[in-house]
Amino acid sequence: MQTPALPPQGATERAxxxxxxxxxxxxxxxxxxxxxxxxxxxxxxxxxxSSSKSVFHLWQGFSIGAVIIGALVVALILWAVIRYRxxxxxxxxxxxxxxxxxxxxxxxxxxxxFGLFAATLVVENKEVANPKTSVIVDVNAFQWGxxxxxxxxxxxxxxxxxxxxxxxxxxxxxxxxxxxxxxxIHGFYVKAFNFSRYALPGVDNVFTLRAQNTGTFFGQCTQxxxxxxxLMWFRVKVVSQSDYANWIASFNNPAAEAAAKAANKTTSQxxxxxxxxxxxxxxxxxx
Amino acid sequence: MTDLLKxxxxxxxxxxxxxxxxxxxxxxxxxxxxxxxVIGLSYTVTAVIMLVIGGMFAxxxxxxxxxxxxxxxxxxxxxxxxxxxxxxxIYLFAGPFAFxxxxxxxxxxxxxAPDMAFPRLNALSYWLYLTGAITxxxxxxxxxxxxxxxxxxxxxxxxxxxxxxxxxxxxxxxxLLTGFSAIFTGVNLCxxxxxxxxxxxxxxxxxxxxxxxxxxxxxxxLAFPVLTAGLxxxxxDRHFGTHIFSVxxxxxxxxxxxxxxxxxxxxxxxxxxxxxxxxxxxxxVFSRKPVFGYKGMIFATLSIAALSLGVxxxxxxxxxxxLLPFFSIMSLLIAxxxxxKIFNWIGTMWRGEVWFSTAMLMxxxxxxxxxxxxxxxxxxxxxxxDFFTHDTYFVVAHFxxxxxxxxLAGMAGLYYWGPKITGYLxxxxxxxxxxxxxxxxxxxxxxxxxxxxxxxxxxxxxxYPHDPQWKMLNDLSTLGAVLIGISTILFVINVVVSxxxxxxxxxxxxxxxxxxxxxxxxxxxxxxxxxxxxxxRPTWDYNHPGHRALGxxxxxxxxxxxSEVPAS
Lengths: 287, 568
Known about the structure:
The structure holds two protein chains of two kinds.
Chain A: H1 13-34, H2 50-83, H3 99-128, E1 135-142, E2 145-149, E3 156-160, E4 166-170, E5 174-181, E6 186-190, E7 195-199, E8 205-210, E9 215-221, E10 233-239, H4 241-249, H5 254-273
Parallel strand pairs in A: 1-5, 4-10
Antiparallel strand pairs in A: 1-2, 2-3, 5-8, 6-7, 6-9, 9-10
Chain B: E1 2-3, E2 9-11, E3 17-19, H1 26-32, H2 36-64, H3 75-110, H4 119-137, H5 166-195, H6 208-239, H7 253-287, H8 294-308, H9 324-333, H10 335-349, H11 358-380, H12 383-389, H13 393-422, E4 424-425, H14 428-454, H15 468-497, E5 502-503, E6 529-530, H16 538-543
Antiparallel strand pairs in B: 1-6, 2-3, 4-5
Helix pairs in contact in B: 2-3, 2-4, 2-15, 3-4, 3-5, 3-6, 3-7, 3-13, 4-5, 5-6, 6-7, 6-8, 7-8, 7-10, 7-11, 7-13, 8-10, 11-13, 11-14, 13-14, 14-15
C-alpha cells in the first residue's frame, strides 16, 4: 500500500486545478467500473440473437456518446443564455473569430465520427456475414401475410393478417433466411432480433440469424404495403434442435408433401423465372 | 452613404404622403404583381394555411392512435391521412415557406437589390405552387380518395394495379407543379444573388441567410430535376404501359427509391438550410454580436450541401442492395459541419447580451430541439442501428424532432421579419405563450415516440397490438400534439389581436443587415438609399460605427474618431 505523495509545497495553481479535474473525472468513472455491467439500456434491449446483442452494445456505445455530447451542448447553451442574458444596453465586444477553438470543434467531431464508424463496421460485418448452414427458410411476403417454406423438407406455414403464421427455427443454429416478396415491398421485422430487412419483389434478400434463447417472438411488416399493413403479423418460435427436427418430420405425409412442392415452385418462380437474376446494378452491394 | 435617389414622395390633395409607384390595388394587385414582397407574402399566407391543414391531418392521426383499436378513421382513410400529412408538410409547407416565402421577401432586400432577377418567373413560381397545392389536395374529392402510398410513394405500391384511382395521379401532378415552382425559384434566387448584389456586397459580405439560400438554390437545381424525372417515369408506368419500376416487365422497383432519395436527401437540407440561416441571423441580432465564425459557418453550409448529395441510400440500408459502409461514413460525416454550426451559434451568444424576445426564444427552442433530432440522426447513419430502428417510430420521432425544430425556426423568422413586411410587431406576451406551448409540446410529442420505436412499434399503423405501455406512450404523444395545436391557435390569435396595433419602425431589433436600413414595409423597389457596405453587417456598422467585428486576438480600441475612420 502506497500513500500518495503529498504535493510539494508551493505547487502552482495550475497543478492544483489539474488534480481537482482529475479527481472529478476519475470518481464517476471508478463508480461506473465498480458497478459492473450496469450500463443503462437507453430504451433498447439485447434481444435473443447473437447479432442482436452486438447491435445492443453498439446502441449503448452510441448512446453514451450522444448523452455526453448532448449534455455538454445543453450546458453550454444554458450557460450562455443565463450568464449572458441582457442586463443593460451595453454593446458587447464584437469578437467574431477564434481560430484554435474553431479548429478544436471541427477536428474532435471528425475523430468521434471515425470512432463511431469503426464500431459500426465491426458490428455490421458480423451482422451481414452469411456463414454456411443447412437450415434454410424461404420467407415469402405478400399482401397481406407470410409464407414460410423450408427447402428440402415438406414444412410449410402460411397465414394472412392476424392469423399469425409462425416461423419455427432451431436454437443455437445458424438459420439462413431467404426473403422474397410476391407483390409490393414489405418489411421483415422482429423486435427481439433488433433487425429488419425489406422483402423486395424480384430480389432474393438473404441474411443469417442465430437465436440464442428459445421462445416465441412477435414480428410485423414494417414497410407500408397497402390497406392491411397494420395487421400483417407473424411470429417466430425458437425451439430446441430436437423439437425442430420433430416439427419438420411432422410434415412428412402425402398431403403436406404436395402442398410444399407447390409452394416451393411458386416461390422460386417469382424470383427466378420472372426476373432473370438480381438486377445488375445492385451487384456492388454487400450481399 | 450612397444616396440612390431621393425618396420619391409626393403629397396628395388630402395631405397624405404617397409612394411614386402606381398600379392596381386589392385583388387585381395580388393577381398581377411581380413585386417579390407581395409574391413572398402570398407564399407566406399560403404556406401557413398548408401548415394548418397538415397540422389538422396530424391531429386526426394522433386522435386515431390514442387507442390501440382506433375507429375514428378507417384503415383506408388512415393511409390517406398520413400520406397527405407528410406530403402537405414537406412539399407544400416547409419548402415553399422557406424558399418561397421568407427567401423571396428577404434575400433581395438583404443584398440591396430592387427585386428578384426574374420578377415574372417569380410570379409564375407562386402560381405553379398554388396550383400544385390545390391539385394535390383535390385528391380528397375524387372517388377512391387521395393518394395513400405514403409521402415516399414506393414502387410498386404506387403503380396502377396497387393504387388505382385519380387521387394518386393528382398527387403526382401536384408534386410536378410544385417541383417546377421550386426549380424556378432556385434559378431566380441564384441569378438574383449572383447578379443583383449592391455595390460593396461581396460574396463574403453576404448575410448568412442569403448564403444559405444560395446553397439551397443550388441544391434545388441539382435535386429537383431528378424527382421530376422520377415522377414522369412513375406516371408513365401507371398510364402508358412502361415497366420502369415493375418486376413483371424487367423493371427494378428499387430504382424508384434511388431516384426519390437522390432528391429526398438533399431535400432534407433544402428544407433545413434556410431555417439554419434564419436562426443564425436571429441569434446574432438578439445577442448584439456578429455571427461567430462567419466564414466557418459558410464552409459548414457548403460541406453539408456537398455531403448531402452522397448520402441518399442511408434511407435504403434495409433494402440489402446498397453499399453500406460508403453511405454510412458519408452520413456520419454530416454531423461534423452540423456540429460546427451548433458551436458557432453558442459562440455567437457567448459574452453577448442575450435578449429573450419571442423570436430569440423560438430560435433557442430550435437549437435544443434540433440538437435532439441531430443526435438521434447519428444513430440512423449506422447500418446495424438502422436495421433495428428502420420504419419504426424511432425514425418518426427523429425526423419530427428535426421538423419541429424547423417549425420553431420558421416561427422565429415570422416574429423577426414579419414586422419588416407588415410594418407592425406581433404581441410579445402571446408570442411567448405560443413559444412555451410549441416547445414543450414538441418534446412531449416526440419523446414517447422514441421509446415506442425502440419498443418495436412500426410506423404507418392505423391500429396496433394491445399493450398498456404502447397505449400510454401514444396518449402522451397525442397530448404533445394537442399542445402544438394550441400553440398554432395562439399564433392565429396573435395575428388577429396585434393587427395594425404595434408600429414597428424601421429597425425594431437593432438589426445587422440591409433589410433593417429601409422602411417597414419597404418601398416598391426596396431602398431610397443604401449605407456603405464594408462588412456583412452594413446596418449595424452604420448605426454603431465604433463597434466593428473583431478578428481572433483583436480587441476594441475606443478612440474619439471611431466614427470617422474610413472603412478598411
